[in-house]
Design goal:
It is built from 7 helices and 19 strands. With about 325 residues, it is of the alpha+beta class.
Length: about 325
């Protein structure tokens, strides 16, 4: 199943416009936006089964930000973004952004998808991944595979702890396109420089234990990678299947359950290639809706698990309730 692909030349050219909004690329510095307020987080977890796979989402943290229209629907009139929020009983002047790494225990491997913001964010209440893992009975040393969906700072920040790998016994999996983009010295002196430094500090030291993947690569039996480029140059999603049950880990394909799903063509400030990101949203969520699969979205309302159905020109988010308890 090919979700989305485009050439390296297209990646580098189309990224130029996105670099005008450097905040997305500076996430590796773990600094908050001026209009963001960290909201104290405590370990929150949600565990359920997909076939024989035990799945848990862990809330690494959350922030409150003002002016949603400056992040979502940036190519729309502010009043139209406000109307979309109000129609869904949401405030038009503020929103909450959550961060939710996912753990999948297959019985043979313990696989962690993304690592949150890490120790640098802990003083302000974020960086709760390790505490969350421990609360559900896992020590970081038990993680056998760490998968990076992409390399923005809120996904790679937890790779290191006290200057050492946080997951001492793990091997690592990442997209080749993503790694090559962020490691490239050409990022130095550009608005992507902070993201480049974050990858040099957190990812490159682990490269000798890293497997680089592409469309259709198998992470472990039952978990396959697919390309969904756009949010970042090499953004990946993952399909997990066990005993005839499936789950899609969509990472940052859609970052708001109303403004990104009901309006998949609305531009998002943090999408580096906005046209490709919109194309990826449609391809991915057309598939999720058609197959009636549950998905985990890194920034969806916690516990970050739900379904979508086609609705008008977009999708309606349906949060999980008791589906996984039956």
């Amino acid at each position: 199943m090919t979700i989305l692909n485009f050439s390296r030349r297209t990646l580098l050219v189309s990224t130029a416009a996105a670099l005008a909004a450097p905040a997305v690329l500076s996430r590796a510095s773990f600094a908050q936006e001026p209009n963001e307020e960290v909201m104290t987080s405590y370990p929150e977890t949600k565990s359920f089964k997909i076939g024989n796979f035990a799945v848990s989402t862990i809330r690494d943290g959350k922030v409150m930000a003002e002016k949603p229209n400056e992040t979502f629907g940036t190519n729309q009139k502010p009043e139209d973004v406000a109307a979309a929020l109000e129609a869904n009983m949401l405030p038009s002047d503020r929103f909450i952004n959550s961060f939710a790494p996912t753990l999948v225990d297959t019985g043979s491997d313990v696989i962690l998808f993304d690592t949150g913001m890490g120790e640098g964010a802990r003083a302000k209440g974020n960086g709760q991944l390790i505490a969350g893992l421990q609360s559900i009975g896992y020590d970081p040393s038990q993680v056998t595979v760490v998968v990076l969906t992409h390399m923005h700072g809120d996904h790679i920040g937890g790779l290191m702890e006290g200057g050492k790998p946080a997951f001492a016994n793990a091997r690592y999996v990442a997209g080749q396109v993503e790694f090559d983009f962020w490691k490239d010295p050409a990022r130095a002196g550009t608005p992507a420089e902070n993201g480049h430094k974050g990858v040099l500090n957190n990812v490159v030291p682990l490269a000798d234990k890293m497997t680089f993947i592409k469309e259709g690569s198998e992470v472990v039996p039952g978990i396959v990678a697919h390309e969904a480029f756009g949010h970042s140059p090499g953004h990946m999603i993952f399909r997990a299947e066990s005993e005839g049950k499936g789950l899609i880990i969509t990472a940052d394909t859609a970052n708001h359950y109303v403004l990104s799903l009901q309006h998949p063509d609305w531009e998002v400030r943090f999408d580096m290639d906005k046209a490709k990101a919109a194309e990826a949203r449609r391809k991915v969520f057309d598939m999720v809706a058609a197959e009636k699969l549950p998905f985990v979205g890194y920034h969806m309302p916690y516990p970050a698990v739900g379904y979508v159905e086609k609705s008008g020109t977009g999708y309606r988010f349906v949060p999980e309730s008791y589906q996984f308890e039956l």
